[in-house]
Recover the amino acids of this structure.
């Protein structure tokens, strides 16, 4: 099945966090808190996917992080699973109440810990700088690195396959013109 055919079926997009929505680096402060860098273009695409296209977006991370929870809240992501010992178990737990099949889900991960979910998801994806063992096993690899627009590229791919991207951009442009008038 082609990438576009797989993308056209997607109802839920799940992202690993560290290495996908961030560059995988964590800045630890002396007080024990941490900082992460998130790409604003990824955030815009996530908001548009949810609010303008009606897709569900979720985060699936083996680590727990206050920074991740805060970013999820900023983007309106309520489907967030952090500190999970098994990403596959959490994935199954996410799908069950929503009555979704694997074919309805896109998942982007960057490391070996993501492979069990990547091998199940209907559309598996990785950033350009993902581990080689991941890049060679997924359906699609972004041209962008993690934390540098990879999530945006995946969302655009999905929304274009669903013939939604152009109308979302056109609607946004019309809103801007209305505000300027």
């Amino acid at each position: 099945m082609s990438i576009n055919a797989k993308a056209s079926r997607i109802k839920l997009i799940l992202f690993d966090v560290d290495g996908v929505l961030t560059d995988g680096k964590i800045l630890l402060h002396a007080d024990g808190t941490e900082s992460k860098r998130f790409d604003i273009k990824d955030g815009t695409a996530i908001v548009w996917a949810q609010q303008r296209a009606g897709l569900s977006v979720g985060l699936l991370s083996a680590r727990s992080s206050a920074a991740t929870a805060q970013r999820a809240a900023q983007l309106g992501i309520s489907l967030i699973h952090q500190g999970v010992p098994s990403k596959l178990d959490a994935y199954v737990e996410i799908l069950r109440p929503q009555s979704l099949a694997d074919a309805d889900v896109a998942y982007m991960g960057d490391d070996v810990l993501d492979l069990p979910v990547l091998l199940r998801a209907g559309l598996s994806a990785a950033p350009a700088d993902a581990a080689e063992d991941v890049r060679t096993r997924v359906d699609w690899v972004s041209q962008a690195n993690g934390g540098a627009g990879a999530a945006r590229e995946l969302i655009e791919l999905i929304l274009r396959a669903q013939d939604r991207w152009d109308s979302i951009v056109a609607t946004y442009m019309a809103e801007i013109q209305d505000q300027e008038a």
Q: What stands out?
A: The first helix runs from residue 3 to 8.
